[in-house]
Amino acid sequence: MVLKVYGNPASPCTRTVTMVCKELNLPYEVVVIDFTKGEHKLPEYIKKQPFGQIPYIDDDGFVLYESRAIARYLASKYANADTAILYPSDFQGRALVEQAASIEAFNFYPSVYGAVSERIFKPAFRGQPTDETRLQEHLSALNPKLDAYDKILDTQKYLTGDNFTLADLFHIAYSALLEQAGLGSLFESRPNVARWWKDIAARESWLAVKDAA
Amino acid sequence: MALKLCGSPISTRTRTVAATCKELNVPYEFVNVDLAGGEHKTAEFTAAHPFSQIPYIDEDGFKLFESRAISRYLAKKYAGDNTKLIPTGPKEEALFEQGVSIESSNFYPSAIGYASEKVFKPYNVQYDSQTRAADCLATLNVKLDAYDVLLGKQKYIGGNEYTLADIFRLAYGALALIQGGQVALFESRPSVARWWKDISNRKAWLEVIEKGV
């Protein structure tokens, strides 16, 4: 049975999962959940995903949600010799991916999500205006973090060293939204971050999903 | 001693790593980082830790930051027959990852938001903490309903065994909810209450609370 991804082509978290599938050359089928109609909050959806969020996968009956968990599972299960580098299994290599992935989840994502929410999600999906104070707070939190990223990327090509891994991949979908939100200068003003972003955003796997999952 | 844990005794993240070490029976030497004196902002510190945060470990020269990455590394490297804080087996490990990921998106932001409003910021009289705290609390309530469903079907966050997915919530749960006076959030939900009572009474955690890191 082909891997099923229950999500939405417009959703960044769905794109994270489908990008991983593309990196692994893993066939998949997207089952579209229309979040604008609240499909993700219906009882039959909640049975699969108790937090009412997208995406989740069904891998031959095995149901899993949380895009970062799904990415790790797929990379572990379906990697071959060429793609194992995405999520290495040696202790130190793995630890360095987890270090960078933790930075993404806790030092990058919260402020980026907040900023994108203010600029895009609230006006587009919730009929709410941008709260400029909150937006500035998110940007004030994000700026010093991006300075740290610039420092890390000064001496290495990717977040863990020479190779592109899941840790870099986790940044892509929301970084694209930051650009869409008119906040691309956050990256462009930092030479190493700009270089890294240009590189990872040009990956074939991202180009294949960035507009449609 | 081979493993140095560098952080602060009152830091939730330092405690998370300490609890992990104690669960695994991994000896460590605690090295205090002088936060009040700004040690974490010095050039020397940021050379190893560009985000100026604690804790980090130094294991015979291998340096790692991000408490969750550290805990994962230790859990993989020092797994014993009786102490599997990360399950083995692709599906079990995936469900563990799902449980860990829920925390970053569905628990941590509102828990730490609430803690910030109620525990860290109250002395700033110009800052309206009540609205933000109320927002965070409202979100927490919704999320904890979902947790109650999840924990009605399985014993722990990541499956039927105690894993890092449970440890990662402990320190923040204690800080946000108990110090903030919101124990009822846990106690009013039968499965969440059952789980919280279980994990907050684990020997390793009690040792960290009572004896320090």
UniProtKB/TrEMBL annotation, chain A:
Q: What EC designation does it have?
A: 2.5.1.18
- GO cellular component terms, A-Z: cytoplasm
The cross-references to CDD domains, in alphabetical order and at most eight, read: GST_N_Phi
- Name all GST N-terminal domain ranges: 1-82
EC primary class: transferase
Q: What reaction does this catalyse? A: RX + glutathione = an S-substituted glutathione + a halide anion + H(+)
Residue ranges of domain GST C-terminal in the record: 90-213
Q: Which keywords describe this protein according to UniProt? A: Transferase
GO biological process, alphabetically ordered: glutathione metabolic process; response to toxic substance
Tell me the GO molecular function terms: glutathione binding; glutathione transferase activity
- Keyword Cell membrane appears in the UniProt entry: no
The record's family statement is: Belongs to the GST superfamily. Phi family.
What PANTHER family does the record point to?
GLUTATHIONE S-TRANSFERASE RHO
Q: What is this protein called?
A: glutathione transferase
UniProtKB/TrEMBL annotation, chain B:
Per UniProt, which keywords does this protein have?
A: Transferase
The residue ranges of the GST C-terminal domain are: 89-213
Name its GO BP terms in alphabetical order.
Answer: glutathione metabolic process
Which EC class does it fall in? transferase
Residue ranges annotated for the GST N-terminal domain, each copy included: 1-82
Q: Which reaction does it catalyse?
A: RX + glutathione = an S-substituted glutathione + a halide anion + H(+)
Q: Which Gene3D superfamilies match?
A: 1.20.1050.10, Glutaredoxin
**What Enzyme Commission number(s) apply to this enzyme?**
2.5.1.18
Q: Name one GO cellular component term.
A: cytoplasm
| Record GO terms (molecular function) | glutathione binding; glutathione transferase activity
User: What's the domain of life for this entry?
Assistant: Eukaryota
Is Transferase one of the keywords? Answer: yes
Which Pfam families does the protein's record reference?
GST_C, GST_N
Q: Which protein family is it in?
A: Belongs to the GST superfamily.
The name on file for this protein is glutathione transferase
Instruction: State the species of origin.
Output: Coniophora puteana (strain RWD-64-598)
